[in-house]
Design goal:
Blueprint (H helix, E strand, L loop, with lengths): L9 E6 L4 H17 L5 E6 L2 H8 L1 H12 L3 E5 H7 L2 H6 L3 E3 L2 H9 L3 E4 L1
Parallel strand pairs: 1-2, 1-5, 2-3, 3-4
Helix pairs in contact: 1-3
Length: about 120
């Protein structure tokens, strides 16, 4: 185990891939375990681009994302992306906050948040 060297326990997970296996075998697995095992105090999962379309139609991924949210992970979807795929309402109905994410993502990148992209 790597010893923590600072007090930065905030992670932004930028999920852009429309690949279902990437979602199940990497993005969701790491995000859920990161929260459940206390690797990170705060995790924001950002649904961006093709991932928004995939999530809107895949029931198994929807169930998984609900479990992730129940564990305390903040899930946010990019409104511009969701609108471009016509899925903003579907994501909102899952309890996901849908908002414009360009500026918030920039803030994450410029601050003490760690950011990982899939």
């Amino acid at each position: 185990m790597v010893e923590k060297k600072d007090n930065n326990d905030k992670l932004a997970v930028l999920w852009t891939s429309g690949d279902r296996d990437v979602a199940l075998k990497m993005v969701f697995m790491y995000t859920l375990n990161g929260k459940m095992r206390g690797w990170w105090d705060h995790i924001s999962l950002i649904v961006w681009g093709p991932s928004s379309k995939l999530l809107s139609i895949d029931i198994e991924l929807q169930d998984y994302i609900k479990k992730i949210m129940e564990e305390g992970v903040e899930v946010i979807a990019c409104k511009a992306c969701a609108d471009s795929y016509g899925v903003a309402l579907e994501l909102d109905n899952l309890g996901i906050e849908v908002k414009y994410m360009g500026e918030p993502l920039t803030d994450y990148l410029k601050s003490d948040w760690k950011t990982i992209t899939f």
